[in-house]
Amino acid sequence: MYRILKKRTLSPNVKLMAVDAPHVAKKALAGQFIMLRVDETGERIPLTIADYDRQTGAVTIIFQEVGKTTKLLGTLEEGDSLADFVGPLGVPSHFEGVKHAAVIGGGLGTAIAYPQAKALKEHGAKVDMIVGFRNRELIMLEDEFAAASDRLYVATDDGSNGRKGFVSDVLRELLEAGETYDLVVAIGPVMMMKVVSDLTRPYGIRTVVSMNSIMVDGTGMCGCCRLTVGGETKFACVDGPDFDGHQVDFDEALRRGAMYRKEEAESLGRHVCRLTGEVRNA
Amino acid sequence: MPNMNLKKTAMPEQDAKERAANFKEVALGYEEAMALEEASRCLNCKHQPCVAGCPVNVQIPEFIELVKKGDFLGAYAKIRETNSLPAVCGRVCPQETQCEERCVRGIKGEPVGIGRLERFVADYAMAHGEAPARTAPSNGKKVAVIGSGPAGVTCAGDLAKLGYEVTIFEALHTPGGVLSYGIPEFRLPKELVRREIEGVCKLGVELKTNMVVGKCVSLDELMQEEGYSAIFIGTGAGLPSFMRIPGENLSGVYSANEFLTRINLMKAYQFPETDTPVRVGKSVAVVGGGNVAMDAARCAKRMGAENVYIVYRRSEAEMPARREEVHHAREEGIDFRLLCNPVAIHGDEKGFVTCVDCVEMELGEPDASGRRRPVVKPGSEFTLQVDTVVIAIGTSPNPLIRNTTPGLKTEKWGGIIVDEHGKTSREYVYAGGDAVSGAATVILAMGAGKIAAAAIHEKLSK
Question: Can you say how many angstroms the Cα of residue A148 is from the centroid of all Cα atoms in its chain?
């Protein structure tokens, strides 16, 4: 069992948890993820490692409550335990030699982009961070982002705070204004990563995306998370989750990501209390 | 007087129609009277050919003699001397090519039902309080076992009995390897696997789940920092092969590993009581002719598919699956499309499978494996309307250990290279089971675990 050491609400549906998992904390690096299972009847879900502390053995995850499992996870409190927590999985990100990078996060992806920005700064790169949210209420971790970047751009879809528009709009303007990057990191909804990759392609800027495929085991034994990269089938859990955005078949990834939409709704529907809207653990 | 009946004592089974709609065990096992009747068919031969046919050398005539006397717990203790997982082996071993193939009674009539008797004895012991196994006092030496499948569990059990402090590292949240994620509940109940592995842990073996060796910790760290004197690698062959045909990444195309892991390990057959979904449509094509293909097809049927096809490129004679499994699948209404091969999978605008194009095959000259090579029959294209495709054409060893262990020699296809004692190219590192041989059987993996345990003991006793 893996104890929850800390819990913080970042925005209405986004929560941060630090979990006691020393063997994960000991080896974790930016870009890697864990698989967790809340309880004995639970499913395994992948979550990116947002932070780690090798001394205390704590591993931080940040999740958005979008379905049965993440809503159930959100009901747990400090001192509660998770049935399973395994990692670090996937290939760490490689940032050697990068001088000027743009790190782009959309929605929950901003939390996952944060350790990447931090790692890039530690490698001595100049970092521009572009983060986007649907509206002002959803903005999170602004201080952390500011600390991890040289310049921070905050966009909201409805313009309720920061500048109005999508993160890709901000990047487009920066590129058109002559800004040069040797690396763009894009993390968030598949559609956002596709738009950013299309945007950087004519400029020839190396663009890394973090693919959030459906996973079961996360160790390369099933191929559930497979995607097409440069015409070849890759497993996101062992070959990624970072891939060259100019090589990824995003349309296929979008279709595969929607594969269980009906079942996901059914599972959530069964577990949400119709009176209070809360998730029941049964 | 021995029972000279030429046929094995029949074992009751669930009715085919009924069982195709549930995940309960198909074969129901002997009752005491049946076990006594079958045991009395054993001639207690002096030269014991059956024992040589068993990869872990269960003392077969001895345990059957104890069954004849009604000493079922004594018989269990006798089996456990050499076999850590008798309830598993009695169910999933291909006895027809091992112990029972060599049985003298099989020369004229059917061999003694050794597997059925082993299963009866193990089930009896579980129900009636098993005798505790004997272990030697601790010798203070630590051995790490990577993987908790049949090879690892057998190796761990044997070493624990010799007094070693054994820790098993398992990547998944449940031990058992293929026994837990691969072989379905209706052939091998998971509760039984759990209890059988618990029995091994009672010998003093420590089990650490959620530990992906090669990610959480490397082999070198286990030896240099954590004080393990030797390591056994029993990581299996869990990397699925795909066919590399168009449409293989459509939604609704599964590797057999994914399909079976969702259903068996994650219990998707109980969704939405459990949280893991699986999509099984009205019609399912399972590609392949091994036991894994039979398991996937029979699972699909139980998940409510109306039409389940086995699509296999050779003929029935070349099928690697056990006869019994093929027979059970047929009884349950699986539709065999032999000498057929898929060439493309098609989907709708949302990316869901709609059909699979196949070609018919003919058998040509024998290939390297000795089986006649299938050749495409010209102009034989046809289409199967299906909404799910399961690819069960084989697996190879996961590259994680070999990629993170310098100096560990492997074959081109990924198998770890070992000598006849299971020793790898690295000192104090041993390996066995599917990680060495590629996908094979439970009992061969157990045999390899046993040989490596003996070799590790010899090495560390010097």
Answer: 16
| Inter-chain residue contact B261 with A217, CB threshold 8 Å | yes
Interface of B with A (CB under 8 A): 171-173, 209-212, 215-217, 238-240, 242, 244, 248-252, 254-255, 257-258, 261-262, 266-267, 270-277, 279, 350-352, 398-400
Using the beta-carbon criterion (under 8 Å), do A41 and B257 form an inter-chain contact? no
Of A23, A68, A216, which is closest to B211 when you measure between CB atoms?
Answer: A23
Q: What interface predicted TM-score (ipTM) does this complex get?
A: 0.92
Unique residue bearing structure tokens 């986007």 = A132
Residues of A in contact with B279 (CB under 8 A): 259-260, 263
pLDDT in tens, B368-422: 877 788 999 999 999 999 999 999 999 999 988 988 999 999 999 999 999 999 9
Q: Measuring CA to CA, how many Å separate B277 from each of B260, B261, B263, B269, B355?
A: 12, 11, 8, 8, 22
Angle at B342 (CA atoms; ends B336, B344), nearest 5 degrees: 145
Q: Whole-model pTM?
A: 0.94
- Coil, helix or strand at residue B58: coil
User: Could you tell me how far CA B181 lies from the centroid of its own chain?
Assistant: 10
Q: For residues A183 and A124, is the Cβ–Cβ distance under 8 A?
A: no
Confirm if B222 and B237 have CB atoms less than 8 A apart.
no
In sequence order, the 6+-apart residues with CB closer than 8 A to the CB of A68 are A264, A267, A268, A270, A271, A279, B275
How far is Cα B218 from Cα B400, in angstroms, rounded to an integer?
10
What gap in Å lies between CA B366 and CA B351, rounded to an integer?
A: 39
